[in-house]
Write a sequence for this structure.
């Protein structure tokens, strides 16, 4: 059964929340079959799938496409749609774009930063919102850990509180010190989802390409459960060899002929 935003909020302190990203229908099917509670269709698609240097190149049209593909593959999973760069620049613009992602199949909307007026406006219009603080890739100048200094840590805590007060039902904490994530998790009544934020968050999110080892770079706080890059490369090499040696598709034709009744 698909979890509602209220169900996810109620999970705080009771059961860790597993979340993975997905961008395609087949991947979403696999993730739903595995029983993952939440799928995030993140603007990370721009970097891990589309070859962009930054998530700032992702458009609302890109996100609509990928949210729709994921919804078709995971009909019974809670899907979060990411608002890309500048599509939440003011409350009305954010609401218009949020409705587009909801229409495409998202159950809730994520946006970066302590945009209090935007979050409040979305919530007032019945849009469930997931907040995001710490490292916010859309506006970050580097991907270093955020919150190592007292001033930064206080800002992150302040932003987390404001995001909650504005009405977000869940909060992503990215690449912040573990102790800081623990403080925020203990202070807020809504679930926190960590990515590079230690073990004390209420849940964890991982980019599926990072989990698969699919790509040529993975953040230091990610884990590779497999190394699909090597599998794909070997398959391509085997295929090339069979075509060049005129083995494929002869082997398939011969097999089909042998199996005829």
């Amino acid at each position: 059964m698909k979890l509602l935003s209220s169900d996810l909020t109620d999970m705080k302190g009771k059961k860790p929340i597993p979340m993975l990203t997905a961008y395609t229908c087949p991947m979403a099917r696999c993730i739903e079959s595995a029983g993952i509670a939440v799928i995030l269709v993140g603007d990370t698609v721009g970097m891990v799938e589309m070859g962009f240097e930054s998530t700032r190149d992702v458009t609302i049209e890109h996100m609509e496409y990928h949210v729709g593909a994921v919804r078709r593959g995971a009909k019974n999973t809670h899907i979060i749609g990411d608002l890309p760069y500048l599509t939440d620049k003011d409350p009305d613009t954010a609401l218009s774009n949020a409705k587009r992602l909801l229409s495409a199949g998202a159950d809730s909307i994520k946006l970066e930063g302590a945009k209090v007026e935007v979050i409040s406006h979305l919530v007032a219009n019945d849009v469930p919102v997931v907040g995001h603080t710490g490292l916010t890739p859309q506006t970050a100048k580097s991907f270093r850990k955020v919150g190592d200094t007292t001033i930064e840590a206080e800002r992150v805590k302040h932003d987390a509180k404001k995001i909650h007060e504005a009405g977000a039902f869940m909060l992503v904490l990215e690449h912040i010190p573990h102790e800081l994530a623990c403080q925020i998790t203990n202070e807020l009544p809504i679930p926190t989802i960590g990515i590079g934020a230690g073990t004390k968050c209420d849940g964890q999110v991982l980019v599926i390409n990072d989990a698969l080892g699919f790509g040529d770079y993975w953040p230091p706080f990610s884990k590779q459960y497999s190394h699909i890059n090597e599998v794909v490369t070997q398959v391509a090499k085997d295929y090339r060899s069979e075509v060049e040696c005129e083995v494929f598709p002869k082997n398939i034709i011969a097999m089909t002929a042998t199996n005829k009744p």
